[in-house]
Amino acid sequence: MNSFLLYALCFAIVIAIVHFKFNLTPPLFGSILIGFWIIKMKFHRRFGIGITCFKNPKPNSKAEIDVDAELLEVPPHLVIMVNGIVGSSADWRFAAEQFLEKLPDKVIVHRSECNSSKLTFDGVDTMGERLAEEVLSVVSRWPGLKKISFVAHSLGGLVARYAIARLFEYSSTLESEVTRRICNCKEETECTKNCIEQNYEARIAGLEPMNFITFATPHLGSRGNKQLPFLCGLAFLERRASQTAHLVVGRTGKHLFLMDNDDGKPPLLLRMIENSDDLKFMSALRAFKRRVAYANANFDHMVGWRTSSIRRQHELPTFDLQLIDEKYPHIVHAKVGTVDDLSAKESTNVGDQTIDTEEEMIRGLTQVPWERVDVSFRKSKQRYVAHSTIQVKTYWLHSDGSDVIFHMIDKFLI
Questions:
Q1: pLDDT for residue 53 is more than 80
Q2: Which of 240, 270, 331, 367 fits 266 for a cystine, CB–CB 3.0-4.6 Å?
Q3: pLDDT tens-digit profile of 87-97?
Q4: Each residue's pLDDT tens digit, 58-98
Q5: Please, is 84 exposed, middle or buried when counting C-beta atoms within 10 Å of its C-beta (0-12, 13-18, 19+)?
Q6: Which domains does the chain have, with CATH numbers?
Q7: What does pTM read for this prediction?
Q8: Cα dihedral angle (205, 207, 413, 158), rounded to 10 degrees?
């Protein structure tokens, strides 16, 4: 979201809470929400948000024009960029331009267009299905592609995690015939797991998975103490937010607060920490050479530090956050992750269900190693919009996050 919309949405959630607390009349409550929606749409029209479409760029050029893939020597690496809630493809404009400037012959960038504005209220699963279809469409237009990476902001990180699970399944289905022949199997069910793993490499949309990078993504959801920081850790507000989020952001709100219960199934975010019959969530994540979580250590009013960095409270750095490289003045901590050694963890006595669920998600996601990069805009004038600054959503408003984008590109695995 743009900063204006970010705070409008925050205020709308508070209004929803107040509505339930003080029983505002439906007309008054509806009028407030409609007013916010009208303001948002006017803001979009004024600045062109959600109107301009990103076209795959011609190599060695920043121009965003549609070209015939057959006439070009296509860079081998596709980078898919995914926006967050109430966002659009325009949110990643600055980062996409930096990719093309620094790696003109190495990557082709596609900023996702399928989940923008109010479509981001449809739920993580619906958005993930749309993103998967969009990726397949892009890949089909560029036959020379060999590798794929994802860069996602906020809610977009959850959507990307869902999409790669769908795309991983698609790739393995395409290769099942080849697998059966290699393993001398008459039917797929006769092939052992070891034989399959030894004779083909995991693919995402038929391409080699390289980088999976998220910026300020609520991997553990928004439920729990200080996971939605603008509620100031007040328990009664956090409880009300869980109960009312769906009134503001639809099914997405239920998913973020783990309040969904589709056909008696566990919450979607809890299901996304393991493989299921048709969606290989963890196998898809494991397939990437790198998984990186950029997280705001402070001043992010939308996504807490724990949930964006996939860590427990006691694992967060407690020392004074200081820059580690003058080239990246807002990067204050970076650590290459290791697989979570559960046997070395001390047993935690917790009675609250939210904490239990959070611990379960941490353990599930850390079955694969993550690089954690902590960011702090504490000394920046743009610190109060850190959630957008980390992405440089709008350059004139969030330019202080440029070094974070440069850090991401410099460390990018080609």
A1: no
A2: 270
A3: 999 999 999 99
A4: 333 333 434 455 556 789 999 999 999 999 999 999 999 99
A5: buried
A6: 53-410 (3.40.50.1820)
A7: 0.79
A8: 10
